[in-house]
Amino acid sequence: MDKTLTLQTCTSITDIPRDDWERLAGCSNPFLRYEFFRSLEESGCTTAETGWQPSHLLFRQDSDIVGVAPAYLKSHSMGEYVFDWAWADAYQRHGLEYYPKLLIALPFTPSRGPRLLLEDNLRANLSGSTMARLLDGLIGHLGAHSWHLLFPDERDQALLGHPGQLHRIGCQFHWHNRDYRSFEDFLAELTSRKRKSIRRERRAVAEQDIVFERFSGTDIPDHVLNAFHVFYQATYLKRGQRPYLNKTFFTLLRERLPEHLHVIMAVRDGQMIAGALFLSGADTLYGRYWGCLEEYNHLHFETCYYRGIELAIELGLQHFDAGAQGEHKLVRGFEPTITHSWHGVAHPGFRAAIREFTEDEATQVRAYYREAQTLLPYRQQDAN
User: Fold this and answer.
1) Which of 34, 125, 139, 213 lies 20 to 30 angstroms, CA to CA, from 11?
2) Residue 337 dihedral angles phi and psi, to the nearest 5°
3) If phi over 0 gives left and psi between -120 and 50 gives alpha, with beta otherwise, what is residue 244?
4) pLDDT over threshold 90, residue 369
5) Is-cis flag, bond preceding 163, omega within 30?
6) What is the CA radius of gyration of the chain?
7) Neighbouring residues of 283: CB distance < 8 A, sequence distance ≥ 6
């Protein structure tokens, strides 16, 4: 197998036959849909100009396509949510180039899931050393200095972990649906103090005369999508950042992936004042984008978390991934979850230094994870 297995890159998702991509990726995860990557490219969100040059991986055995993976040649580290700015700064201080780098990941999406979309037979026979050789050889061919695979699932992790690779861990907070029939069912599992606190927060939003409307798929009107995009832009502009996604992308998302798309809008005095966008998969709700023009007491928690929990329960989904970071999610029923990333660094000196950094970081993250578990608001923590 090693003699005939090759790895190459494609500069557009359209260079890969759609049938082959869907055969390997399936259609249940919205972030692995062919249409998701096509919409990112056609809207101009992932281009060489934005620092996200598509370089999707294509695994071949002889002439047969046996695997694919979403990948980008990056000229910066924005929009990744596994932060390596310090690594890039260290390279620069020593007069070395850190970019370009090969990123195997979902753009602007820090969600765990499959990254190496391989035929079962290939996966069963593929060794970590072969994968390392393929990826290390590819970055040399591309003129990159490193490769980075972000937020893989357990199956992909089994193909990583070669001695030359670097492993990082992080911590996110995810909500789990334990067969709840309603939001009140969920609240009943919390301690009395936390239950009262959440009810207080929800009342505070209602007392500001804020109501909510939900729209899904092709039933999302233009004026709602337009308003949401304004709110989304505001989130980034407040931090002095340029938004990653444009209005064209959201329009294409509604057109091409309507079965996955949900928007919740907050309304006051007949005017939309905030909104959150969610994508649903086979068993997971993903809370992805949020925005508002003015701040209201507890509005973010209500729109993004409590309404998201209600949506997950209604759709019968088992998990709710509300995005990266956010320790404030912990007291609202979201549980700590370890995430992973793997990195191949060509420079041997920096590889050794980064390895020491990742090992120290992992010790801190695991201690944080254990402490977070003790702070869960559930009445019977041992059942979680």
Assistant:
1) 125
2) -140, 130
3) alpha
4) yes
5) no
6) 22
7) 317, 318, 319
Same-domain status, 133 and 11:
yes
Contact 377, 333 (CB under 8 A): yes
**Cα distance between residue 126 and residue 132, in whole Å:** 11
Q: Does residue 119 sit in the same domain as residue 264?
A: no
| Residue 187 and residue 163 share a domain | no
Query: Are the C-beta atoms of residues 120 and 163 closer than 8 Å to each other?
Result: no
Q: Which domain holds residue 141?
A: 5-169+337-373
Q: What pLDDT is stored for residue 3 in this prediction? A: 57
- Rounded to an integer, what is the distance from CA 314 to the centroid of its chain? 23
Q: What is the mean pLDDT of residues 39-45?
A: 98
Cα–Cα distances in Å, from 59 out to 14, 19, 74, 154?
16, 15, 21, 20
Match 């990557």 to its residue by tokens: 37
Same domain assignment for residues 244 and 286: yes
Phi-psi region of 269 (alpha: psi -120 to 50; beta: other; left: phi over 0): left
Give bridge partners of residue 61 from the DSSP assignment. Answer: 5, 64
Amino acid identity at 326: G
Q: Quick one: residue 43, left, alpha or beta (phi over 0 = left, psi -120 to 50 = alpha)?
A: alpha
Number of C-beta neighbours around residue 317 at 10 A = 18
Q: From edge to edge, which strands make up the β-sheet containing 117-118?
A: 5-10, 56-61, 64-69, 117-118
Closest CA to 164 of 375, 17, 347, 304: 347
Smallest CA-to-CA distance from 263 within 239, 237, 228 is with 228
* Strand pairing report for 146-150 and 101-104: parallel
In a domain, 230, yes or no: yes
Tokens of 278: 């969610």
pLDDT tens-digit map of 162-207: 888 999 999 999 999 999 999 999 999 999 999 999 999 999 999 9
- Residue 99 has which token pair? 């970019």
284-341 pLDDT, tens digit per residue, is 999 999 999 999 999 999 999 999 999 999 999 999 999 887 889 999 999 999 999 9
Tokens coding 79: 């929009």
The answer to whether the beta carbons of residues 27 and 77 sit under 8 Å apart is no
